[in-house]
């Protein structure tokens, strides 16, 4: 018997099948009699669909069916609000569904005997468009004379506005000894998951419309599909095959509804695989933002006030902008105590690809501003940036910007100290300007170091009653011979299934080898919630622990088999007050601090990240090797965001629509050394004290690199990615 599974680096239960190719992803699925689907994308940022002529396509070889807006029973969907048509065009009862609002809007679907036939037929569909004015800049979309993109959802293009009002900022600024102002720009980021959108839909043996496609929340997917098809939830079944990455990009629908529509109407299996280009134009992205900030401190290094305005590009539809930007509002003051805060965060509809969930969920944008403001204040005060952070770091009893105390055991101090010590940070009074005044024949290569910190909520927020379901079955006679656990939480590469087995084994005192897991089938499992908000280790862990304990009790009472279900309810939260933001928006936070060393070539503008130390408080490392893998993966993804990935659009059209033009880091580009420091300050409500981790290590990478570039060169670069052109421009080498 094993009773020490938690805390052990158990090999991933899905590793062997994935590396040997046995595992099936959505694009690998096949079925007898299967048809193939292709989608006609709008390829226009803003237009009214006047007419769709599919006559030529309908007569093409192999074509079985073509569906347009008139064929969708309830032509609307959306994770937060239903503001997006399933298919754009005439014929829907719902108004404004004949308008496309970004290039990735879907206009028609073709189902044919082969993929090639479907693709050929899509090109034969003739669409008459009436082009409409394009809003590609959020500030332009805010002008009083701007066209309203969603007249059925308000009389402006503001889709979100959050306010935080704490204390009296005017009075505090009047007493501040040092004030720093800045404007910061953060870019769009593409998720670039390995597996593009794909899926197979069919009627199962019990008459369910069944969709096998990657997602992040089976039960939410089921609800969205059922709504658009006008069917009861029970008629829809969502199953997740293996998922090749998500990072928030699979929270919103892509192929699921149209696949289900076709399978339901035709009563035959239908499959689709998006190309990489279709994936890039067709799914949401990290929100671009402009953040203006004014922060003040006393001469002894205490923060006294912060005034912040963020304008984020929400793109064509809401997606999760309301939640992303709520989190941005909370994290915009950084993991610090600031007694007086005035914050306004706006999300704005435009004709760009929608802003969506992406690892970090608003915090990377907010923290880029917050951490550079901290560095600039430290420099102006002549203080070491690490000491300045420690002086202001959140402690027990401190209030957040929303006016309520930070939930129990804030651990940002321990994270800052851990990163400082591992990096062997040496105190500095101010950045040393190494690029100026150098000897005539000295090297153009300069080095610098930077430091940044951050925090992020665990779990759903703002008044939602967080909950998660699990089930445990124990089989055997005199001893436990087989354990089956059920958990619908999505395994998106983070290792959830492995830690669920470890947790069940820990409670039951059995070897992990006798525990098997049944996963992600909405027809067979209760609602576990989304693989997002760094929530599953915490939420699914608590529900699995509860189910295992209940099953163990039945086993001890000699029930055979011993079967128990458990739904964990997290501590309650409250929504923002409309006027002040006052709230208890989250029940838990995780904390991180990082130090980075970079090398800048002042002749080419090239930035090389030599070393990143990341200290992350996970509460309890259920599987330490997986924790390290999460930290390394997040740092690499954030490094791409900070240094390399440059998503370009023009008038709403995507210019970098391939991985040959949108460059993500290869093995040659990633930081040369990533050092993980696992901090374990138990969360009082977490299973075995565990907190969430998945998003945490991504948060401070960009500002840490920005600070290191400044330390090396003496220039602040308040916009990223830090491409060679942008660095050279900051250095005055190019105009």
Can you identify the CATH superfamily of the largest domain? Answer: Aldehyde oxidase/xanthine dehydrogenase, molybdopterin binding domain
CATH architecture descriptor text of the largest domain: 2-Layer Sandwich
Proportion of residues in helical segments: 25-40%
Shape: globular
The domain tally reads 3
Give the distance, in angstroms, between the N- and C-terminal Cα atoms: 69 Å
Coarse structural class: alpha+beta
| Count of extended strands | 25
What's the tally of helices? 17
Rg measurement, Å: 26 Å
Strand order in space, largest sheet: 3-5-1-12-9-10-11
CATH topology of the largest domain: Aldehyde Oxidoreductase, domain 4
- What is the percentage of strand-forming residues? 15-25%
CATH class of the largest domain: Alpha Beta
Largest sheet: 7 strands, mixed
Mean pLDDT: 96
State the low-pLDDT regions, or none: 429-439
